[in-house]
Amino acid sequence: MKLPREGLSKNAVLERLDAFAANDLPWREGNTFAYVYDPGREAEEVLKAALTRFMSENALDPTVYPSLARMEAEVLAIAAAHLGGDENVVGNFTSGGTESVLLSVKTARDYARAERGIAKPDLVLPVTAHACFHKACAYFDVTPILVPVSGPSWRVDPAAMEAAISPDTIMLVASAPQYAHGVVDPIAEIGAIAERRKLLFHVDACVGGWMLPFFRQLGASVPAFDFSVPGVTQMSMDFHKFAYAAKGASIVLYRDKALRQHQIFTGANWTGYSVINPTVLSTRGGGPLAACWAILHYLGEEGYLGFARNMLEATRTIIARLSALPGIEVMGKPDFSLVAFCSDEFNVFTIPDLMKARGWFVQPQLGFMGSKPNIHLSIDQAKLSKVERFLDDLEACILQARQLPPPAVPLGLLERLSALRLEDLSPALFHQILAAAGASEGLPKETASINTLLNVLKPEVAGALMSAYFNELGVQAR
Ligand SMILES: Cc1ncc(COP(=O)(O)O)c(C=O)c1O
């Protein structure tokens, strides 16, 4: 692929882009149970207008764009109040949950270095905490100490968290809720441990933190999970998920400025302009911030309560119907509109392919440390009007999946792979595995074989394989 010598017309460019999207799942029809959070057409128009209005303004320098400084301050104030914070709570608008978590871990590391002289930091987190904490550990040279979590509650045991603390622990982590099974960890108990052991405590409310208070207003039982809990020192919360903002919208919050100070990077030791970066990114388009401010004000409390009502109703309908199906287990008792189900009787990894053929996306999750292979559903407000049709299709696919032969992966290969160590993964074996998974060329047509294979591998081998696969994908346009 080469840059065209002469530019195309606006129409030709837009036609090409539309053609690229032809195979994407139609999320506007409410068909994707992950990745997209649909506020409806009218709200989408508001997002688009705000996004493009501030597309070119640069949050790198708030002195030049006071508009962005003001919007960030207002979004922060709304978020802090929404999460039980007082006037001392500070934070920053970021590009997503991962950036918020990266910043929080980096802040904890630098705080521990400065205040406690810790040179080899570790972080205590449940296995249900989002993978972005592992990414933060990898980026900032922090050792993750994983605390196992088991069913049926899928909430971490506070005593197990405390037992994992070492003299080098810089922070405890818990989720409200965790993504995989949608349950809230025991935040108050862990907060008490953090206070007693004088540790920082991050509550990751990325996926559900915005909506949980609205669920509570509607009578759902939601335990205290935010700055109202003593011991919570920092939080992350995404707007681009269930606050229905445009993508690129999250927030990291700290109990006070003294802690946030360790987040900020400045660079005056070069020949160019003075760099003051509170966040990972330096140049930041104003669009996502403006769209976030816009949707909060467009929907208001009433709008979000309406969305919360839709989410609760759709989730309850889905859980009731799934729980009644023989051989299907809904994992835990979700506190939020995230539902995972598994089965001991057939390979659930065939369900996403069968559902895709009917126009739906549902998300496979690999088995890990006692959490069986399962299918995850993120249920946004737009799902309510589709829920019966979705459930009819899902039930039909589950019946069909039960009848299917196991995915066409040679059995011997599965056994061999389950014993595979990282050092055994040769390029030849890598290509053999890709071929067995039907993923030798470009994006795979079906995912059951791939997930069945990945599921038997040791996590570090699966990780190496996925990274090698993605490394290959990048070169295909040549
Ligand atoms: C609990 C939790 N934390 C963090 C993240 C990471 O967020 P992002 O994908 O915006 O980087 C997610 C994403 O689903 C999440 O569910």
CATH superfamily of the domain at 51-294: Type I PLP-dependent aspartate aminotransferase-like (Major domain)
Query: Which structural category do the helix and sheet elements fall into?
Result: alpha/beta
What is the CATH class name of the domain at 51-294?
A: Alpha Beta
Distance between the termini: 6 Å
Q: Strand count, sense and closure of the main sheet?
A: 7 strands, mixed
Name the helix and strand elements from N-terminus to C-terminus, one letter apiece. HHHEHEHEHEHEHEEHEEHEEHEEHHHHH
CATH topology category name of the domain at 51-294? Aspartate Aminotransferase, domain 2
Strand content: 5-15%
The strand order across the widest sheet is 1-7-6-5-4-2-3
Global outline: globular
CATH architecture of the domain at 51-294: 3-Layer(aba) Sandwich
Task: Tally the beta strands.
Answer: 13
Number of helices: 16
Mean model confidence by pLDDT? 94
Describe this structure in words.
The chain is of the alpha/beta class and 478 residues long. Among the domains are: 51-294, Aspartate Aminotransferase, domain 2; 411-473, no CATH class. Helices cover 42% and strands 12% of the residues. The protein has helices spanning 10-20, 41-53, 66-82, 97-116, 132-140, 158-163, 187-196, 212-217, 257-260, 287-323, 351-357, 387-403, 411-418, 427-436, 448-456, 459-473, and strands at residues 90-94, 122-126, 143-147, 169-175, 200-204, 234-238, 250-254, 265-267, 275-277, 329-330, 338-342, 363-365, 374-378. The strands form 3 sheets. It has a 7-stranded mixed β-sheet, sandwiched between helices. Strand 4 (169-175), helix 7 (187-196) and strand 5 (200-204) form a beta-alpha-beta unit. Helix 2 runs antiparallel to helix 10, helix 3 (66-82) runs parallel beside helix 10 (287-323) and helix 4 crosses helix 5. It is globular, with a radius of gyration of 23 Å. It starts with 9 loop residues before the first helix and ends in a 5-residue tail after the last helix. The structure holds pyridoxal-5'-phosphate. Residues 96-98, 101, 130, 132, 175, 179, 204, 206-207, 238, 250 line the site of pyridoxal-5'-phosphate.
